Amino acid sequence: MSSYIVLLGGPGSGKGTQAEILVEELGLPQVSTGELFREHLKDGTELGSLAREFMDRGELVPDEVTIGMVRERLARPDCTSGALLDGFPRTIPQAEGLDALLAEMEAELTVVPYIKVNRDTLLQRLAGRWTCRQCSTMYHVVFSPSFKAGICDRCGGQLYQRADDTPETQLRRIDVYFEQTAELIEWYGKKGLLVEIDGEQSIGAVGAELLMAVREQCRT
Ligand code: ADP
Ligand code: ADP
Ligand code: ZN
Questions:
Q1: For ligand 3, a single-atom ion, which residues have Cβ within 5 Å?
Q2: I need a labelling partner for 28 at 20 to 30 A (CA). Which of 4, 82, 109, 202 fits?
Q3: Would residue 93 be called left, alpha or beta, if left means φ above 0 and alpha means ψ between -120 and 50 degrees?
């Protein structure tokens, strides 16, 4: 049976961190729109330069552009039996777009875990976030430091702070989340797909709760 899963949560709630754990356990490909946009930026594509002006401000890239990019990604062969979506959808039109895409694939969403974290925690997490340039593993200066400062434990790559992780952009992204994305909690709740996860726990504890929730839904 196919499983398409949406990870919902604010910027800094731990979606990327947990997605890493989940993809390994479930064998699903991770589809992160933030990562896809960053790849376009790196490759200097037209889509990348369009996205940059929104990303630099902490605003959302327009829905049609984002949905188009996801459509292309889900059409690749590794997504035919499921995917873990991280950072998409972020608006109700995107959620409707996803439903339409899945319907075309004769698939549907299995479960939407919502990683619940309060505003202060979101800010603390974003402020200390470092990412591996090579393998995208996430670290946190206080909560999840690498063994050697500035170096990835996994691949020896260099850690960097994202260009859009300035204090100003972080605040804007959090506001945008509460203004435009948080309404998806109720939206997916009404569809009976939402499972709330306490995101204030340690990375391992959140991961365990998430896995349990996902396995339960994928079985039924
Ligand atoms: P974070 O990990 O802080 O939540 P992401 O890496 O998911 O950030 O996203 C970085 C930026 O990419 C966002 O601020 C936004 O500009 C853009 N972006 C990512 N996903 C979406 C989306 N689904 N819709 C619109 N813009 C998006
Ligand atoms: P998102 O993808 O939702 O924006 P990330 O996975 O990038 O969030 O996590 C943001 C930061 O918080 C990273 O530095 C990560 O190491 C850290 N982090 C993630 N989950 C936890 C947790 N449960 N406890 C403490 N720090 C965490
Ligand atoms: Zn690495």
A1: 132, 134-135, 137, 152, 154-155, 157
A2: 202
A3: alpha
- Selected catalytic residue, list 38, 73, 125, 129: 129
- What's the predicted TM-score (pTM) here? 0.95
For 141-148, the CB contacts below 8 A with 24+ separation are: 143/203, 144/17, 144/203
3-state SS of 37-48 is HHHHHHHCCHHH
pLDDT for the residue numbered 218: 74
What does DSSP say about strands 109-116 and 3-7: parallel, antiparallel, or unpaired?
parallel
Q: Please give the order of strands across the beta sheet that includes 109-116.
A: 30-32, 82-86, 3-7, 109-116, 194-198
Q: How far does Cα 146 stand from its chain's mean position? A: 21
Q: Does domain 3-125+166-219 have CATH number 3.40.190.10?
A: no
Residues in the chain: 220
203-219 and 15-26 helices, crossing angle to 10°: 50
Query: What sections of 75-131 are H helices per DSSP?
Result: 92-104, 119-127
Query: Does residue 203 register a pLDDT over 60?
Result: yes
Of the residues 154, 162, 215, 219, which is catalytic?
162
pLDDT of residue 153 exceeding 90: yes
Domain ranges of the chain: 3-125+166-219
